[in-house]
TrEMBL record:
Occurrences of domain Phosphotyrosine protein phosphatase I (ranges): 5-130
Keywords: Arsenical resistance
Species whose genome carries this gene: Mycetocola manganoxydans
InterPro entries: Ptyr_pPase, Ptyr_pPase_sf
Protein name: Arsenate reductase ArsC
A biological process term (GO) from this entry: response to arsenic-containing substance
PANTHER family for this protein: ARSENATE REDUCTASE (PTHR43428)
Amino acid sequence: MSEKPSVLFVCVHNAGRSQMAAGYMIALSDGRVDVLSAGSEPKDQINPIAVQAMAEEGIDIANNTPKVLTTDAVRDSDVVITMGCGDTCPIFPGKRYEDWELDDPAGQGIEAVRPIRDDIKARIEHLLAEILPEKA
């Protein structure tokens, strides 16, 4: 891994889970991780309930835009996390790949999205502990 690791979060629509994960990674890594998110069939906007759920945590993802998954994004990342949505990513040797089985927040109310958000936060905290050296 490079001095500043990069993490790519992938889900089909890049509108909910991957956006929440990217929001947490940016907020919790204090700029020590390059963060990307993308989807194979991106929606035209972020899921408003995901935006609301993250706002409750003090994290603003409202101005993010879903992006299309590219081979370059995978190639340029040290860690590639798919969100349990069956997305297939190009495989490059030397990368770390994980699939996080997470419920899809699409069409769900805030009560259903909060536990998904909290699960993502716990996974982000665990991942950060693995990929970042302890602060001196």
